[in-house]
Amino acid sequence: MGGVWLRGGSDRRPWFKGGAKGWGHPAGKCRQSRLLPCTPFTLIFLFRSPDHILPCSPGWLLRLAASFLLSIFPLLDLLPVALPPGAGPGPIGLEVLTGCVAAVAWISHSLALWVLAHSPHGHSRGPLALALVALLPAPALVLTVLWHCQRGTLLPPLRPGPVARLCLLILQLAALLAYALGWAAPGGPREPWAQEPLLPGDQEPEVAEDGESWLSRFSYAWLAPLLARGACGELRQPQDICRLPHRLHPTYLARVFQAHWQEGAQLWRALYGAFGQYYLALGLLKLVGTMLGFSGPLLLSLLVGFLEEGQEPLSQGLLYALGLAGGAVLGAVLQNQYGYEVRKVALQARGAVLNILYCKALQLGPSRPPVGEALNLLGTDSERLLNFAGSFHEAWGLPLQLAITLYLLYQQVGVAFVGGLILALLLVPVNKVIATRIMASNQEMLRHKDARVKLVTELLSGIRVIKFCRWEQALGARVEACRARELGRLRVIKYLDAACVYLWAALPVVISIVIFITYVLMGHLLTATKVFTALALVRMLILPLNNFPWVINGLLEAKVSLERIQRFLDLPNHNPEAYYSPDPPTEPSTILELHGALFSWDPVGTSQETFISHLEVKKGMLVGIVGKVGCGKSSLLAAITGELHRLRGHVAVWGLSKGFGLATQEPWIQFATIRDNILFGKTFNSQLYKEVLEACALNDDLSSLSCKGIGSGPEGNGEVPDPLGHLFHQILPAGDQTEVGEKGVTLSGGQRARIALARAVYQEKELYLLDDPLAAVDADVANHLLHSCILGVLSHTTRLLCTHRTEYLERADVVLLMEAGRLIRAGPPSEILPLVQAVPKAWAENGQESDSATAQSVQNQEKTKWGLEEEQSTSGRLLQEESKKEGAVALHVYQAYWKAVGRGLVLAILFSLLLMQATRNAADWWLSHWISQLKAENSSQEALASTSPASMGLFCPQLLLFSPGNLYTPVFPLPRAAPNGSSDLRFYLTVYATIAGVNSLCTFLRAVLFAAGTLQAAATLHRRLLHRVLMAPVTFFNATPTGRILNRFSSDVACVDDSLPFILNILLANAAGLLGLLAVLGSGLPWLLLLLPPLSIIYYKVQRHYRASSRELRRLGSLTLSPLYTHLADTLAGLPVLRAAGATYRFEEENQRLLELNQRCQFATSATMQWLDIRLQLMGAAVVSTIAGIALVQYQQGLANPGLVGLSLSYALSLTGLLSGLVSSFTQTEAMLVSVERLEEYSCDLPQEPQGQMLQLGTGWLTQGSVEFQDVVLVYRPGLPNALDGVTFRVQPGEKLGIVGRTGSGKSSLLLVLFRLLEPSSGRVLLDGVDTSQLELAQLRSQLAIIPQEPFLFSGTVRENLDPRGLHKDRALWQALEQCHLNEVITSMGGLDGELGEGGRSLSLGQRQLLCLARALLTDAKILCIDEATASVDQKTDQLLQQTICKNFANKTVLTIAHRLNTILNSDRVLVLQAGRVVELDSPAALHNQPHSLFQQLLQSSQQGVPSSLGGP
Fold this sequence. Notes:
Elements: E1 3-8, E2 11-16, E3 26-27, E4 30-31, H1 40-46, H2 58-76, H3 78-82, H4 92-117, H5 128-135, H6 138-151, H7 160-184, H8 214-219, H9 224-231, H10 250-258, H11 267-293, H12 295-309, H13 314-363, H14 371-413, H15 417-461, H16 463-469, H17 472-521, H18 528-569, H19 576-579, E5 590-600, E6 610-618, E7 622-627, H20 633-641, E8 645-653, E9 661-663, H21 674-679, H22 686-695, H23 698-702, H24 725-730, H25 749-762, E10 767-771, H26 779-793, E11 798-802, E12 814-819, E13 822-827, H27 829-836, H28 852-855, H29 868-871, H30 891-901, H31 903-938, H32 941-944, H33 957-960, H34 982-1030, H35 1034-1039, H36 1042-1084, H37 1092-1133, H38 1135-1141, H39 1144-1196, H40 1202-1245, E14 1267-1274, E15 1284-1291, E16 1296-1300, H41 1307-1314, E17 1322-1327, E18 1330-1331, H42 1337-1341, E19 1344-1347, H43 1358-1362, H44 1370-1379, H45 1383-1388, H46 1405-1417, E20 1423-1427, H47 1435-1448, E21 1453-1457, E22 1469-1474, E23 1477-1482, H48 1484-1489, H49 1494-1503
Parallel strand pairs: 7-11, 7-12, 9-10, 10-11, 16-21, 16-22, 19-20, 20-21
Antiparallel strand pairs: 1-2, 3-4, 5-6, 5-8, 12-13, 14-15, 14-17, 17-18, 22-23
Helix pairs in contact: 1-4, 2-4, 2-7, 6-7, 9-37, 10-13, 11-13, 11-14, 12-13, 12-18, 12-40, 13-14, 13-39, 14-15, 14-18, 14-37, 15-17, 15-18, 15-36, 17-18, 17-34, 18-40, 22-26, 30-34, 30-40, 31-34, 31-36, 31-40, 34-36, 34-40, 36-37, 36-40, 37-39, 37-40, 39-40, 44-46
């Protein structure tokens, strides 16, 4: 009877998982006693003062009375034994011992019942297990009563002793019946406590394990609250799981690991120093457990010998049976504790490795791995590294097992074992070859996996451009090609694994044949003892032989992953101490000084170098940096922040410890609220916050409506109006608490730039590095940023400003001119700017003074670019919690995997599996039959003579207990020849070998078919996932972090590829093995079948209780892994900003918080597995001891056939492993199927873009290129203002239309509707008179082309980026590059086959925009859309590009969105938008001549430069 403490709230109540043991009477000379373990928990609990005593129901009273009587009857039964003449068949000492133990067991059971009856459990029936265990003695009592009837106890002459014992037996059966009735009586209504949640309110869950007693640790009683929450469906979030023990907490692990870690050290040495000694000590536990594993076969040998010889006293057999049970129990406990402690060490190592990986990511220098590779280190390699923990001890444990097994085998069959050994040893080199091939294929597979995850990462980051350009199919095909290469390697691994599985499954039969044939041919006679002990030992021999390749494979995989992680850890660090001069600049007034400094993006200087001969920046200066595209402006700022390699020279920064204010060219925005993005971990200061919003033009955009909430001011009524009114009310309904998408995807380019600038300003630094923050905003907002922010709030700081918009540098103190990575000139603006300006202010030369109206700032109602409104709820939550299924894995998930494998393959696998098991059982049965025949022929005819069953009446032994005569009824007559005849021997050996051959063939078929089926499933599930994700609308990507999607493509796909097939294979083998085992046991020991129903119920209840929590823990484990992925990807993307702001410590803390939640799930998962394992092992041990007891009873009756009993017992020894293996492999399979469930969730439930209909228009259906919007209305969500409000206009074929308007006027919304990335609420868009809503998306987008504002490039060659679909020849590609002035750059990179790096890192932002333009020049689309595509290009290059566009797209319709109005002055007409409406549409000249036109206001704002009224810095 085991106690499980349930701790919830203040009350502590026991859940008893065991019960008292009954006892049985002797059968023949045997005194069979059915004893259940007593529990000390009952007595402990009794002496606790209960808070309240509850009255108990009649059912409990009946059970109490029955158990009290059952505790007295064993003592009364001793009287007829002790009084002369004794009625006991056995020694009096044994009788007294069994009677006393039974009485103590029932007394402890009575006390347990009393405690439960007077607790809140008294209103229910209490634990089912308690009742089941109490009723277990019933079969033994019935058997003993029947035995008394057969012995004629009630027939004259009556003997008082036996009659008294029979009466007591009947009374015990009556008491057990009363007990059963008491349990069946319905309980009363539940008390209110039963309805309370197990974890009330905000109470933190208990700390796992710490402070628990040794008994609680061995039985895992401390897991009761967690499992109870799981059973009640209350494991909904990671916080519901018990907190980590102190030794597993990430902060503790980081501290312990850091004590042994230093930069450049070997990871394995540090791990050994931190956790190695304890891990090695666990080897002692493993050693003792391994030794105990041999007690089973040895005691089996002794027991079968005892049954066969029949010479030893009964007490010896009883000792052997007890030894079997005791060895099984002790071995189970030790192996369980070993597995648990090893898993804890593995989790310690995992926590330390994931922590050091993240710390390294924060310290990375310029040489950084792709994000996909880093994510694979986090997900795949760290897990594989942990396989070492289990494999290392097996690497010495398995050879030890092998040596001991061989010795024991030698003891049984002498030198005959050598034949089997030679066969086994011949397979060692085969296994080595297989392991080596698996390792090599593994390395290649990981490389292809890295490439695939990296490509998917890039694909997700550029999904909008991919949809614009209709590249889903082309890039999807690239991912599939990577996947095909990955699966190619996986296929090799799987078929090699199948070879291992084949050897593992076929070898026992083959080795057995070789050993027995050798033994017989040497002239020995086979006996039951030798055969079945040898069979058990051969099974033990096969385990080390066949597990060894897996162990070696695990070690090799861990080695590969260790090397990959070590390479990452060995990457050069960002080291400010070495990078910057330890001394501040020589002049006190100087804040920045570079002298003879040479920088490069790589440590050897093969990429473009940046050389600064001398640069000195005084405090408080505004320094402008100008130059052509790719000249090194951004590189100079990166060099100052330490993001480049300094090859030589001197860099000195004053106040370096304070960091920099950095606004990068590509704004880095976190998936967080607007306020969190701006504060960036700094304390909220209401006054400063308002100033920053005003300075960064967020206040002008948003303050037309005010709402409360920023904070309380010191004056007035204590309320400060919220400056984010208008936008936060209309566009961002939750104010500055509105969440923005990952990387700011839900914001326009201008919004992202200004929020990034606001973040830098709010940090209040001395030195600001601003990389073209004005490029993405219109002229009016750019003026505001310059005046209020750069020359306003930041006027007291030092600012370095890179920009192509040279008109904003006229107020700079110094302008630096860069060319080809060199600082070639520095001087005042009047001297430098004329060298780079190329666009004359033609229309400003009219001398027209701007009307006072033109100076007014028209309200910028900035709407989000990609449809934030559609995603936002009224609470402003964009990021929805990741969905998590609850309850059992649904049937459709199993069906989905079934279909993915293929119905035909599934049926073939199952059929071959059943054939394999049937032939294996047949081989063992044939041996048993052979031995029975040998014994029969050698025994006398008198011994064979038996009375017919009919003459024995109802209670004949053949009906009660199994007799050899009807164990197996052969389907064909079997010859009974003399055992020594050579023909007869040949016959038996031939049949045995034939059965074994068929078994080998079936095993091979099953292994190969299973490998093929799981490979098919892996390919199918990934293909469906990829297709569905690529077809999802952009709104899905806005609201979903990339890490969440990547988790599916990385961890979940890896699980389906590898972990799920592995555990599913074990499940199928266990299920088939159990079926075969039950068939043998049912035939050999039919009374054992009586135990099956209660045993099945107990197993079912235990596994159901476990599965309820196991599933949720697995789901929560996957759920908590996604934020770790996202956080790492986010960190790598924003590393320069993080370091500049000094936020690395805060991000490290956040990583530890996320890691702690994930470790909670991992720890709870492994602890619950061990909870299940110990229970299953102990139940298995009980079954083994029961079988041994039944065998002894049969022996006493003279009914035991040693061959059959030996067969049954050798199978029963594996019953423990099979039953626990079946339940644990089933629960693990279900947990692994959560990955299939998550893949299916995306494959089936993701929303899809509306596809329209495939009209029969032909490929070139768009012949003219006219565009017509008819009363188009676009509203993102009901209740919000229309983004497009009745837009109507027509563009003639070949017309060049410029689209202008203040930020948020609806310009980009036009393109979203045109490309159908968003569907209009009403109205139509016609292309050559065809309604776009009636077209298929591919049909529509194939006729449109776009040059996006944000250039999208993916890792690969220049050719692949220019022409993803491979439609053009090299000459056309070079021509396009030449027209975009990129031919020199591309030639220097290695031509069209030069690699661009992840996201096109090899090129500057401007060069990336030019490459996207070259891509558009190759298109044959009739309609081209240009979305501010040259914002990051210098003015001279821009002028040349405009000429290129005019020339190449002369006969095409061109729609150009522009912030820099000079790019559209040559358009045929200009469309002016305001608040989603068309307000002006005419030629540029006509609109310019209208005195108060909005176009004229915009034009004059852009050309007036910096107003003369602006103050200096």
